[in-house]
Amino acid sequence: MGTFILKRMFSIIPVFLLAALVTTGMIHLSPVDPAEAYLTAAHIQPTDELLEQKRQEFGLDQPFFIQYANSIIKICQLDFGISYVSNKPVWDEVITRIPATIQLALGSILIAILVSVPLGFLAGIKKNSMIDHFSRFLSFIGASIPSFWLGYLFIFFFSVKLDLFPVEGTGTWLHLVLPSVTLALPLIAIYTRLLRASVLENMNEPYVLYARTRGIKEKIIMAKHVLRIAISPMITGLGMNLGKLLTGTIIVEAVFSWPGFGRYFIEAIFNRDIPVIQCYVLIGASLFIISNLLVDVIQMVIDPRISRKVGYKQ
């Protein structure tokens, strides 16, 4: 297993280099001049002399590959430059916003798992029952309603009308409820259907029939064997969404004024804060890679068939 993880870690390097190449190329492909964007954000009238001075300061007068090499060195030192708006190091501002995004991501994932696992499992073993019809209805609602509209509905009913939860911001666990549920509902819709379909498929597998012929109780077969294998597609989907949640769910953070990483990115776009945008792209790529690696490791642990394919024995 260690060899597998080591190989995957090495495979991260070319992806990271490609992401750094894209972020460096953004400066040259973008119609916005970084020097002009900096002066505009600082409320300084751009002149030819000031523009040339800032281009030299940012290293934009150097060849592209030298800029690329310099950016790699700085990234390895966690130096993403200075924000054009706040005039502070980008990394120092990012690490103050990431905890809020992690809190929101973990809250939404926890709600999604607690609801979708029992609901999807019961819907699969009790096909066409009331709980199955309810899971279909909940999945339809979760997949159909846009997150921003759902967020505003929650604010209107639970904050304005019933005064149960705060409208915006952070501070207590009550602030976390509405944005977490808003993010969790689409995930519940996806995971419930994935788990239901996987349970139905695995119930017809030979290992289930063999377990029944051995006289093992049906509840043990379903809980210990079927659920363990059937949950694999759901974990894959969880890994795909984890990176997205950790990079900040932009719309939900904007709706609930959540001071997270995604909202910081939106503000950077409006302010043409290029160092922040570059930092967001690189961190986003890294989080997606790491989350997929974690999912692969978990899949190997819970599914012996995957372990045998990669040559790892439990």
From TrEMBL:
CDD domains xrefs: TM_PBP2
The ABC transmembrane type-1 domain, residue ranges: 98-299
Annotated keywords: Cell membrane, Ion transport, Membrane, Nickel, Nickel transport, Transmembrane, Transmembrane helix, Transport
Annotated InterPro entries: BPD_transp_1_N, MetI-like, MetI-like_sf, Nickel_NikB, Opp2B
Membrane topology: Multi-pass membrane protein
PROSITE patterns registered for this protein in UniProt: ABC_TM1
Transmembrane segments: 12-29, 102-125, 137-160, 172-194, 281-302
Main location per the UniProt record: membrane
Gene3D superfamilies linked to this entry: MetI-like (1.10.3720.10)
Subcellular location: Cell membrane
NCBIfam families: nickel_nikB, Opp2B
PANTHER family attached to this UniProt entry: DIPEPTIDE TRANSPORT SYSTEM PERMEASE PROTEIN DPPB-RELATED (PTHR43163)
Subunit relationships: The complex is composed of two ATP-binding proteins (NikD and NikE), two transmembrane proteins (NikB and NikC) and a solute-binding protein (NikA).
Family listed: Belongs to the binding-protein-dependent transport system permease family. OppBC subfamily.
Name this protein carries in UniProt: Nickel import system permease protein NikB
Organism of origin: Metabacillus endolithicus
